[in-house]
Design goal:
- This protein has 411 residues and is of the alpha/beta class.
- It folds into three domains: 246 residues, Aldolase class I (TIM Barrel, Alpha-Beta Barrel); 38 residues, no CATH class; 86 residues, Translation factors (Elongation Factor Tu (Ef-tu), domain 3), CATH 2.40.30.10.
- It is built from ten helices and 22 strands.
- The strands form four sheets. The protein has an eight-stranded parallel beta barrel, surrounded by five helices. Strands 17-16-22-13-14-21-18-19 form an eight-stranded antiparallel sheet.
């Protein structure tokens, strides 16, 4: 069912792209090789992948956004132009950019633009300036909902329109990792590793533990917290307030995260936005969505700056606080469509009838199934051991070579 809120999902690789589609995304954003803010932390696509990516998205009725949002140097301009030209050729819905070189060239070539959060748009005058180039702007992540709503109200009052002739749309981050720096403009990685975060090569210094050392060599950990590593943003429990601020596009962070993360988070926010428009948004549903969101990668959740708080919600663990993790199980050897049966080779652990199996592949995306029946050597069995082959029922098509995992809940 269509509704006014666009859910934009991250696509860091082929499997995540299909997971976003499976999760009900209205649009996806992705990078190609370099010149994007996840140039090092996700697999990214190549120019050769672009026809497949855009074709698959058009087939599924979703928009495509190519990220070109790094700082650009003179040496980067030929590559930037090549990517914009490719975006035009393959009918990418828009590019996401912050450098005026990319923005201006895209306008010359007739390619639509979304202004990246790297531009740090924090007031209505900046919105009006960028409206000459773009139909949508990603607001700075440091704004409160009150400030977002004020900008939205002034866009309507002043009738600020983009190149299409429509009112400029507002896009905000709804879920995912936050950076301690203003709209991601951090120089720690450049200082310590000569690897610039603003060029998509962040080494994530902020995700480390730090200690304080006195002049006489006394040393202590700072409050047992990762003092520069914010918890992940989560707006699911006040999403009605976000949409009341007249936001049109909800962006999910996570091009460096796993396909099951992309699918789960996209599903939850699609369901939540739809329930708000239908008037069925409730505390019970919020609790269920939060439970599902906690099951995939997260550093703990907080509400960002939207409710007027200062940064102070630091993660207490290195890595994920997800309530469950995937354990590699084996490989798919074959899939029999008529019988809806997958043939698996168990390469690690064992598979039991009470397990939930997760199958991930570049073409498959993410398929999750409960093991209700299990067959080994054509006989019903309660388990399949390491080195054995088995068959299980899987309602969606999976493919030879796909990876199979089991979910394991953390204590």
């Amino acid at each position: 069912m269509k509704h006014p809120t666009e859910i934009m999902a991250p696509a860091g690789d082929h499997a995540s792209l299909r997971a976003a589609i499976q999760g009900g995304a209205d649009s996806v954003y992705f990078g190609i090789e370099q010149l994007n803010m996840r140039a090092k932390s996700s697999n990214n696509f190549t120019l050769e992948d672009l026809p497949e990516v855009t074709g698959l998205c058009r087939k599924n009725g979703i928009k495509t956004y190519l990220t070109l949002n790094t700082i650009l140097y003179d040496d980067d301009l030929p590559v930037m132009k090549q990517l914009v030209d490719a975006a035009k050729e393959h009918k990418v819905s828009a590019i996401i950019a912050s450098d005026q070189a990319a923005i201006s060239y895209a306008r010359k070539r007739g390619v639509k633009v979304h202004i990246s959060t790297q531009a740090n748009i924090s007031n209505i005058e900046m919105v009006e300036f960028y409206s000459h180039f773009a139909d949508a702007v990603v607001l700075a992540r440091e704004l409160s909902l009150e400030q977002v709503a004020a900008i939205a109200r002034q866009i309507e009052e002043r009738q600020i329109k983009g190149p299409s002739g429509n009112l400029v749309q507002l896009e905000v981050f709804a879920h995912g990792a936050l950076c301690m720096a203003i709209s991601g403009k951090c120089y720690l990685s450049l200082h310590t590793h000569n690897s610039s975060a603003n060029r998509g090569a962040c080494r994530q210094n902020c995700r480390q533990t730090y200690s304080v050392k006195s002049d006489d060599n006394n040393e202590l950990l700072v409050d047992n917290e990762y003092i520069m590593s914010p918890k992940d943003l989560c707006t699911i429990d006040f999403l009605d307030e976000v949409l009341s601020a007249r936001v049109q596009i909800l962006k999910i962070e996570g091009r460096g995260r796993s396909p099951e993360y992309v699918k789960t988070v996209t599903q939850c926010y699609k369901e939540a936005a739809l329930s708000i428009h239908q008037g069925s948004y409730s505390a019970e549903k919020i609790e269920e969505w939060k439970s599902r969101l906690y099951q995939v990668y997260n550093r703990g959740f907080w509400d960002g700056y939207y409710l007027g708080r200062h940064l102070g919600e630091w993660s207490r663990k290195r890595g994920s606080e997800a309530t469950r993790k995937k354990i590699f199980l084996g490989k798919v050897l074959n899939y029999y469509s008529k019988a809806e049966v997958a043939h698996l080779l168990i390469k690690n652990r064992k598979l039991s009838k009470d397990h939930t199996v997760l199958i991930i592949g570049n073409t498959t995306g993410v398929v999750e199934t409960e093991v209700e029946s299990l067959w080994v050597n054509d006989r019903s069995s309660n388990e399949a051991l390491k080195g054995e082959e088995c068959t299980i029922k899987v309602g969606e098509k999976v493919r030879e070579g796909d990876d199979a995992y089991i979910w394991e809940y953390k204590e």
